[in-house]
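hi got a favour to ask and not much time before my train. below you get a single protein, a line of residues and a line of whole numbers that encode the local backbone shape. could you go over both lines and see whether the tokens make sense for that sequence. a few lines back from you is plenty, here it is:
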Amino acid sequence: MPIEGFDFKAFARSLAEQVGPALPQDISDADKQYIINIVHNFCYMAGEAISNDTTISFNADQASVVTQFIGEWAFHKSIDIIRSGIDPQFRDGILQKIAFTIFEIAKTAIIKNMPQGDMIAVVEFHVKKAYNEALEELKSKGVLTDEQVKEALTHSNIDEMAQQAAAQESEAQANGEPPSEGYTPAPNDNKILKLATFAIVLRHLPFEKRQGLLDKFSPEEANMLRDYANMEDLENKLDPALVAKCLTEIKNTLPQPKKLNKNKINKRLYNIVKNSDITKISNMMNKERLAIKHLITQSTQGTADDLPPRITEIVCDYLEEKLNR
């Protein structure tokens, strides 16, 4: 049934009308009209599909978000495709694959109440993935060469527009002008780059450690990390300087290892042993290594052991966990 306050026909028409003034000058008139038509048709179909989907109950704002995602990315990627020199007969197929991907990802993100910033990032990630897959598919069919695919991947109209906007804003601020209304730097490229950089680290870790780290991320970010970690030749697809910068930023955000006071740790162990049932502790130590048994024996006598403080701390944590059960 129709969504109250969401006229998909008028919305698609409005989005298409905004395309013309934003089109770059290096695009031919025929291609400009193609882009306008693509944006209108894709937004019209997306809006109609959401309005008729009985499995979801979106409000007008949510339906507009999904439709606008499709319109914006149809705009940007059609420009990239045209600048890449890809034969017109293959344009629709690539853009349809991207539009369908956005439709499903954006709907899922809204259903999961994903924050707007995360939604933008995850949609962008899957758009780039779908675009790469579409190009690789054409290459496998002999339509595109490896050089043509690489050339196509060098174009990114959304990045160019973001850089231009940032440059204009910087120039305006340098001239003492206030920030433009609604201006916000694009944080998502940096977030995605950090995730891709972290994926390089992940792919060199054992499976157990990798999974443990993935569990600390949101499901959406974990899926992005897995996709990046499985991406062939990931290291060569990223700018080494940016990767190094991201690694430094990641390192700076990690908690610093705490310095352990050996005397305090030994005193902690002594108090645990002193205030616990020694028989229970002895039973726990039956299967332990000789060094650990020796550590416990020393602590009962109030003397220190030569084991590193970190090992003693682990033993303390272990004893407290078992004794408190």
In short: The two ends are 57 Å apart (CA to CA). DSSP finds 16 helices and no strands in the chain. Residues 181-187 have pLDDT under 50 and may be disordered. The CA atoms of residues 6 and 60 lie 5 Å apart.
